[in-house]
Amino acid sequence: MSILTILLNIFLPPLAVFLKHGVGTTLLISIILTIIGWLPGVIHAFIVNQ
Question: Entry's InterPro entries (predicted)?
């Protein structure tokens, strides 16, 4: 995992997921989790982008 990916996972979780997986259900889940709370979005982004 690069430094850029780590920074995107922390500051813009949906963008990090989009760059790795494109548009799909994973991106939608990331957006919903980030709207609910920033921390769930970050955790999801780190898990998805391993």
Answer: PMP3 (IPR000612)
Using only C-alpha atoms, what is the Rg of the chain? Answer: 9
What is the C-alpha to C-alpha distance for residues 26 and 3, in angstroms, rounded to an integer?
Answer: 22
Q: Where are the domains of the chain?
A: 3-48
Q: For residue 1, is pLDDT > 80? A: no
Mean pLDDT, residues 20-35 = 95
DSSP 2-42: -HHHHHHHHH-HHHHHHHHH-SSHHHHHHHHHHHH-HHHHH
